[in-house]
Amino acid sequence: MGVIYQLRCEKCDYKFEIFAGYVGFQRWVITNNNKDNYLDKDFYEDLKIFFSKHPTGEIRHWINYLARCVDCGEYETVKGWSMRFDEKRIPILFKDSCHNCGGMLELFYEDEITSKVFYCPNCNAELKVELAGIWD
Fold it and tell me: What CA–CA distance (Å, rounded) separates 24 from 134?
């Protein structure tokens, strides 16, 4: 559930849509209090380590992030977890390399999509960011 943003180049007609927000019917939040519900999961040991260091932290599942390749400039949607502690957000991505060239991805949070300037990977013109809809 979230917002659809379109990044559009008025010079060369490049378009990219990001379905920003949480994936799935409802948002999951793992805390120190409910981490034992995940005993049977492969990532349970990682949860224990995280909460031993950040007992008041929380982990949010399946978030769509906007990512841009630092090498070729291509945009893509990347799924990941979002860990929060001490007012900091730390993304844990399920993939961290570009689908186009294998380069490293730069990640943007949903609130950055409308506040940053993005450039077209084809012609380097500034992209226009527009609200394209809502998805569920």
Answer: 14
